[in-house]
Amino acid sequence: MPSSHQLKHVVVVGGGVAGAMAAQTLRVEGYDGELTMVGAEWHAPYHRPALSKKLLTGEVHRAGIDMAPQNELDVRTLRSARAVGLDMTSHTVEVRDGNQHRSLKFDGLVIASGAHAREWPGGPVPFGVMSLRTVDDCLAIRSQLRKHTRVVVIGGGFIGTEVAASLCSLGHKVTLLSRAGALLQTALGQEMGNCWTDLHRDHGVDVRIGVKVDGFAGSRQVKAVRLSDGSKVKADLVLIGLGVEPATDWLQGAGITVDNGVVCDATGAAEGAIGVVAAGDVARWWHPLYQQHLRIEHWDQASRQGVTAARNLLVGPGEAEEYDAVPYFWSDQYDVKLQLVGVPTGYDRVEVIEGDVRDRQFVAAYGKGGSTIAVLSTIPGRVADYRSAIAERTTFPPSLQAQPV
């Protein structure tokens, strides 16, 4: 493979925020060679967080979620095209573009192929059972909504809870089903997850936790959701939010290490290949702060990783910089804005350090081994005050007064 300063043909696989930011960064940083972006969707890159919120409710129009036009960057864009294979010997990405098959030569590759929504594991489902991952999914869901639509949402993660909040705000009768003991339990733990369980119930959502879905009633159109206890929940529309799987099937046999995503070092370099970086939902980067590989499915992470991966691809491994920023995430549900810095996975203590959970104006900190590893807040902007406490592994619980001005 040529050294980074000799790159002439760069391919970016993925048309989401990670791929778009990588392409933009390549041009901004002075790369003037051939640049091709392969996007599985017909649409130009757009802001995915709006799908479960303002686009779903109609607060913004379709064009309002588009990112900056890519044609200004001199990028050859293949839309509705899918990468189906990678050959590191010939340095080619195999692409299915409609009825055509293309082989794209590269000397630099950015893997940003994202993730797919998990399908219902029980096989075919009746009409009206849907998932939300793309803008087309969102518009299809909107087309099914009527004045008195009875909606059942399966899954108590961020997608499920955001969709439930959005549809409830439109006046629909919503039932939210979760196998866990609290909403958002996987992301926030049960202690904080209980806050969002109560929040949804206070807004009229029929929240049922600790339940298992067996299947659906209805031969053509869904009529109800069947639970494992034999009961049924009537439904005109069912939305499945069971998480996502990284889009790595096309990498089979390429020699790149894949384990719950493309395994990368802290610079974004893919393990098992030279001249290949990965970013976004498909990538599992080593994080120096947490001393483990993390695959984080958040917009902010995907954007920052896209920038970092592109820069490091250009300068090469000798000058590549590690990405060690504290992860950040937000979620708007009703009138509450959840903001989280850090990764609370594996915490052994959680404590409210500001405000009161009952007022839904509070800050909570997560600790592990006596150090602060994450901070959650519903007070707008407050998490920024604790970012350094996490980066510096401040003794738990952190003190706001100890933060630098």
UniProtKB/TrEMBL annotation:
Cofactor(s) named in the record: FAD
Keywords (A to Z) from UniProt: FAD, Flavoprotein, Oxidoreductase
InterPro entries: FAD-oxidoreductase/Apoptosis, FAD/NAD-bd_sf, FAD/NAD-binding_dom, FAD/NAD-linked_Rdtase_dimer_sf, Reductase_C
Keyword Oxidoreductase attributed: yes
Organism: Mycolicibacterium celeriflavum (Mycobacterium celeriflavum)
GO cellular component, one term: cytoplasm
Listed name of the protein: Ferredoxin reductase
Keyword field contains Oxidoreductase: yes
Entry-linked Pfam families: Pyr_redox_2 (PF07992), Reductase_C (PF14759)
Lineage of the species this protein comes from: Bacteria, Bacillati, Actinomycetota, Actinomycetes, Mycobacteriales
PANTHER family, A to Z: APOPTOSIS-INDUCING FACTOR 1, RIESKE DOMAIN-CONTAINING PROTEIN-RELATED
GO molecular function, one term: oxidoreductase activity, acting on NAD(P)H
